[in-house]
Amino acid sequence: MAFGLAHRKERPRVPLRHGEGDKHRLTSLEGLAALSLDALSSVAYGPEAIVVVLIAAGTGALTATLPITVVIVILLTVLVISYCQVIAVHPDGGGAYAVAKKSLGPRVSLLAAAALIVDYVLTVAVSLAAGAASLASAFPALSTHLLAVCLVLLVLLTTVNLWGVAESARVLMLPTVLFIVSMLGIVVMGILRSHPAAVVGTAHSVRATESLGALLILKAFSSGCSALTGVEAIANGVPMFREPHVKRAQHTELMLGVLLGAMLLGMAYLIRRDQVAPRGGVTVLAQLAAGAYGTGWEYYATSFIVTLVLALAANTSFGGLPVLMSVLARDNRLPHLFGLRSERPVYRYGVVALAVLSALLLIAVGAETHRLIPLFAIGVFTGFTISQVGLVRHWATEQPEGWLRRAVINGLGAVLTTVAGLVLLTTKFLEGAWLVMVAVPLLMLLFTRIQRYYTAVGEELGLGRIPPPPAHTMSLVIVPVGEVSRLAQRALTAALALGDEVVAVSVQAEPEKALALRDAWERWNPGVRLEILDSPHRSLVQPMVGYVRRETGTGREVAVLIPEVEPRHRRYALLQNQRGLLLAAVLQARTDAVVCRMPYRLRL
């Protein structure tokens, strides 16, 4: 070779189709933005949930915030480790559902799936409602339009996710980074200051109504565990990551655990040190921001970022639920259309279903956050517990190297999540948690009925069995025609190639037109028999359906080839009649004939 270059045999490059390859999948950082905003944004209400419960025992009880948060972070650590294991064991996604299906049986897997679906829908509703409420705090004029704000945000999120999961992650990347920086800034600046830089809100008189006992501590712990919602989303969406998707998903899970744990511990320390109690007109997070930054532009920028991220946290569900629904569809527990992906790839039917369910829930509660909170987190803790128990069963069955240590970690996580879930359920039952207890069994029943239907269909179709050889029977192709034309010539040419016998059928309401058509047909002489059906009531469909039914009753295989005019430009489509589409729909519904539509494409 010239210039001393040796000849190289190059592999032929096959061009990728749109949506193939890693371009439209997530990196670890993009996964953090697309699937972790729900968990990260929970620092806006998780510590406050603990404070609101503890304040019932007086301001002195706020010292318990830090040890309770330490236990929650320990639970977070266990969950992160567990879900890293789930990602490795079940790389196809599905999270708690996949674990339960493999290790705990079909009924428990149905419970996990139903709980996760409820949690994902509630996550969208709560995030949007909280974001709208926070926005209304800055702009009071919006306070009477919370539902409209929520629905507009929901439409925007749905549109972005229908475009593509990687695209939604890129849109969310900047808000995610700003949120992380501002929250860690609150922790660092707050610790560096010896006392709060500013105090915001109006003081409340605090009267102790309870003693700081075990029940109150358990209640504060379970309420604070709302900060853990969303930890499971990464394990549910593993297929969305770029190769190697298992390692990328695990790295994202670990990043989430480190960031969330640091934020929770830092804020709990500041709450304990500065005795941050609930004040009128502001959140606990706003008080911490004012204590760290003062009331300058940093404070207002942080408030805006928190508002934005709370609203965008709903995107976590759009990343996780469609993948879970696709897994359920693959298992015949949801309609198969939820397993269809678009080119990018996006499970668009799952995205739309999540948007519709969330919109209905927001409309039902009027976008009021306090009506949604009692329903929140119960479903996700059910999923937590199931995944932990399932992993214990998995390690005990497989017994790989180091299985006992892993089983102990998962067993501890199962105990903690069970306690938190039971306390949440008992304390919030009358406030609306009973709705979750109704919705979950109904979803399980729906999954069971769908699976039973697909099983019955499989039996009737003989799926998995070798059928007898196909029998050759005489066939008849029926071609509806209106008059002699190139359209009729094209349709008859196609029909002669398809069947043993071809007949042209025309429905005429006026005898003069029928005679004219017969005369033109005889002059044309295409070699195909013409049948003219009388229709005094000017109905095209009914006479044609009756004729097709009579022919199918003779035992022959009957096909109906319907020619249709298709303009080149869409703007002319409305100028064509839709009789072919209507006839095809009615024939498919009322006869056993094979119905085909043949387009005749115009140059116009």
UniProtKB/TrEMBL annotation:
GO molecular-function terms, A-Z: transmembrane transporter activity
Compositional bias (Basic residues): 1-16
Segments passing through the bilayer: 32-58, 64-89, 110-136, 142-164, 171-192, 212-234, 254-271, 299-325, 346-367, 373-395, 407-426, 432-450
Domain of life according to the entry: Bacteria
Pfam family, one: AA_permease_2
InterPro entries xrefs: AA/rel_permease1 (IPR002293), APC_K+_Transporter (IPR053153)
Swiss-Prot/TrEMBL keywords: Membrane, Transmembrane, Transmembrane helix
Localization in the cell: Membrane
A GO-annotated cellular component: membrane
Region Disordered, residue ranges: 1-21
UniProt topology in membrane: Multi-pass membrane protein
PANTHER family cross-referenced by the UniProt entry: POTASSIUM TRANSPORTER KIMA
Protein name (Swiss-Prot/TrEMBL): Amino acid permease
Species the sequence originates in: Streptomyces violaceusniger (strain Tu 4113)
